[in-house]
What we know:
- By secondary structure, this protein is of the alpha+beta class.
- It has 15 helices and twelve strands.
- The protein has helices at residues 18-26, 32-47, 54-61, 67-76, 83-96, 158-161, 164-170, 181-194, 213-222, 260-270, 303-307, 336-345, 347-359, 370-389, 402-405, and strands at residues 101-110, 120-124, 129-143, 146-155, 203-206, 227-231, 236-239, 258-259, 273-278, 284-296, 310-315, 326-329.
- Strand 2 and strand 3 (129-143) form a beta hairpin.
- Helix 1 packs across helix 2 (32-47), helix 2 crosses helix 3 and helix 2 (32-47) packs across helix 14.
- The longest helix has 20 residues, at 370-389.
- The N and C termini lie far apart (52 Å).
- The relative contact order is 0.17.
Amino acid sequence: MSVHDTVQVPPPAIAMSVSDFADTLFGHLPRADQRRWAEAYLKGLLTTPGKKSVRRLAAAVSSSPTASHSLQQFLNASPWDWAPARRELTRLTAHWARTRAWSLTTAVLPKRGEHSVGVHRWFIPAAGRVVNCQQGLGAFAATDQGNLPVDWRLALPECWTEDAQRRERARIPLSVRHRPMSAYALDLVDTLRAGSASSPPPVVADMSTFSETDVLLRGLIQREQDFVIAVPDKLRVIPVGYASGSPLRTPPNSGPVLGAQQLLRQCGLRRPHTSTLMGHGGGARQVRAVSGMVHLAGSASSPERQRTALRVFTQCRPVGHRFAPVWITNMMQERIDELFTLAHLNAGSAATIQDMQENHGLLDFEGRSFPGWHHHMTLVSAAYAYRRLAPPAAHQQHAFGAYWAAA
């Protein structure tokens, strides 16, 4: 399937007010006060300058001295379900924006102390150091209007899931356990696929710093889900003899087990080729690229090893420079240019997270409870999507009148 076959031409912008947008996302909430505070929080995120603490958001939308307490209760204590709002946000985003891929990206949320749910001293490869933080895995709709967040999972280390007192204090459901990042990724993919009314777009993710990436790849293959995934350099693969026009599904290969980067270095000595990379601004540049056909290494009983040929590829860099990220895909019929274009969509999710941190209050909520974290992430994601999709004039059409003053 071509990349361009998975997209739809959308209307140019959201054709609804922020109040109608809030009602569409949070109309499932059973109580009127919950729906009112959901709208208030959303409007506060869109209009409050600077730090978006609960206290400042409450002051922006209400003159009541109890507004801050009520808004805090709505976020942390009120037992409302965030899943319907996220499903509706995913649906609206697909309707209004040309979704080219689902991008999965990790958000690192630095925290002080040890009371925020899931906080842990994680080693963050991008920072090159240990950071006291929460880690969330976000699902983003990669569109022409940017990468829009639609769903989240919070990574919980065992020191949280195996501590009964911490679980109770943070209101972590009994069904939520410590899981590898590959499991969170597959859970997000399953949720997105369940809510998709059409053929799902490819999944793009950078999983190069996580273990069990092969588990994610096998899970996506089993789901017959198209993907372009950045993998660890040492991902174990087996070279496959592949010629143009040969079947995509081949029998097991008895060749040597290699690391993905090792295989590409060998390919690069024999079969470099030129690819066109499209920049975010629309410009194009020529680069040298290498690719190779592989099976995932595994036990002889692994059905993926026996059936599915995959393509690994990367951009060449000058001698002495580190290899660019290694990507793997099951989209065998796509040209290498298309695959690089998809891979580069993932960078837009990191840019979105940075924007959400700086301008949409992503880091401005302490998040001590598990429900509170998910409530906040849902509302921040909704605010970001509305700001990116609505015409600029719509952002100023929320006058907080006597209704909010009396809240």
